[in-house]
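PROTEIN ENTRY
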Amino acid sequence: IGVETYFVPLAVPTESDVRALALQLPPKVKGDQPIIGRLTVSSTVETKKTIEFTVDGAPVRATTVDLQCGETLVPLEWPATTLTPGDHDFGVRIVAEDVEPLDDTAFATVRVLPVRKPLVVGPSTSPIVQALLVQAADFERVDAAALTVEQVSRDTVSVLVLAGVLPQEIQGTLGAHITQSIHDGMGLFVAPAESATDWPKWQEHVL
């Protein structure tokens, strides 16, 4: 008894079907650091495709990438310095005309944190201020009499530097707020008021 056998030729796809499988970005990043992530793309054939990038719905750039048959990891990087602190929505769209255009996009949300800087409380002539200026450090300074609750925040101040000011001199609501901010993770450093000769030893507490 003979068995009839039929051979059906399988067509090799000439147009790729691509999918944006995942957009992986860090959930949080400091405002002075780049946002580094990757996009995983699936394609049925080797091809070139243009990928468009958006931030908060606005287009920022487009790039052409080589996609292999299967999955391709596309590295991504954005400068966070161009973004204000807060949550930002990042999106990618693969420019492709295929049967499932909805799977050509992917989205992720990143929280950009404020850049935390040392805050020096004391006169501009204090040794630590002069040492920081020599180091070209990025810091803020305020006279003790002008210090307010709004200026002291764990989100914006990395370390509170008291230059010639004793902690017990700061009382009331401001003192309580500083104490709470320290408990929340803000650093506190009491700097020498008379000399900066010890700067190499105590700069690690500030920068």
Summary: Confidence is low (pLDDT under 50) at residues 8-13. The longest strand covers residues 34-43. Residues 20 and 41 are 5 Å apart (CA to CA).
